[in-house]
Specification:
This protein is α/β, with parallel strands linked by helices. The protein has 8 helices and 15 strands. It has a 6-stranded mixed sheet. Strands 6-7-8-10-13-14 form a 6-stranded mixed sheet. Strands 9-12-11 form a 3-stranded antiparallel sheet, with helices on one face. A hairpin with a 2-residue loop joins β11 and β12.
Length: about 300
């Protein structure tokens, strides 16, 4: 059995306070016997505030000021040290400083008992986000003692190709670090943003036959109202643990990763993901045909 914890995190732009929250939740998750704890998108630094493009300069300056190198930034080293000390894996997000000033990535980092393991740079970067972050270009899968992990960041989970690519590369566990918000009045359990968040979590898990863990902010910051709902979803698309839309802190579940995947295969008469795919027919996806939709 593997115990997974995921955090509904109250957001802040105070990096020192945020680091302490991360360390405290790592301690709490370790005390609960967790093998892995997951945090939201750019959890360490906070998702940038919503401002008009004409007022973006102060936001960019703040991002440049707090961005850290991976794996050598001070907060990155502090989190790695605590995870190593407590014998736990942790996935969290930050503004990653690129090769030179002005290049920043939206990155999620995986660290564990042996130290830094790897990181993922967000591939599907939204139109407004491209004013802040460069695009990632790969889908790494990381080996851990309890299974292979593929990481996504927020907007990535809207695209079925993301989890399919990670699954075909061998991921057993799909981890989604999010900063998923809602328009005013839409953050209730029946709101459209909450429904879509939940639908994507469950669909991405079920269509891949893999476990999925999502983590999100909860509360308000920078003009965003975050919906929470950090949760753990089975390969059959069942939510087995959730913080709901208002809970702050950790929820956890002990899961049998291999048995869950086997149950999904049994439900669909075997490893359908490989057996029944017809990639030779996906001609628009492969670029052989020009898509009708113009992006």
């Amino acid at each position: 059995m593997t115990t997974i914890a995921t955090c509904a995190l109250a957001p802040t732009y105070d990096v020192a306070a945020s680091l302490q929250r991360h360390l405290q939740y790592i301690d709490e998750a370790a005390d609960l016997g967790a093998d892995l704890v997951v945090f939201p998108e750019v959890s360490l630094h906070g998702y940038p505030p919503s401002v008009p493009s004409t007022e973006l300069a102060p936001v960019l300056n703040q991002i440049y000021a707090v961005a850290e190198a991976v794996p050598d930034g001070p907060s990155v080293r502090a989190i790695a040290a605590r995870a190593s000390e407590r014998g736990i894996h942790a996935i969290y997000g930050l503004h990653e400083a690129g090769e030179r000033r002005g290049i920043v990535y939206d990155t999620s980092v995986l660290t564990g008992p042996t130290g830094h393991i790897g990181s993922y740079r967000k591939v599907h970067v939204g139109v407004g986000e491209r004013l802040l972050w460069r695009l990632g270009h790969d889908w790494p899968v990381f080996r851990t003692p309890f299974g292979r992990i593929g990481i996504l960041i927020c907007w990535d989970k809207d695209f079925p190709e993301s989890t399919r690519e990670l699954t075909l590369r061998g991921a057993d566990l799909l981890v989604v670090c999010s900063a998923w918000d809602a328009s005013p009045g839409d953050h209730t359990a029946n709101g459209a943003s909450v429904r879509l968040y939940d639908v994507y979590d469950r669909a991405r898990a079920a269509e891949s036959g893999r476990w999925l863990v999502s983590s999100n902010f909860v509360g308000e910051l920078g003009g965003h109202h975050y919906i929470g709902r950090s949760q753990i979803v089975s390969p059959l698309g069942d939510v087995i643990a959730t913080t709901g839309t208002s809970g702050i802190g950790l929820t956890r579940a002990s899961i049998d990763i291999e048995a869950g995947i086997a149950a999904a295969y049994a439900a669909w008469e075997g490893p359908y993901l490989m057996r029944d795919r017809r990639p030779e027919t996906y001609r628009a996806l492969s670029g052989e045909l020009t898509p009708v939709i113009d992006g």
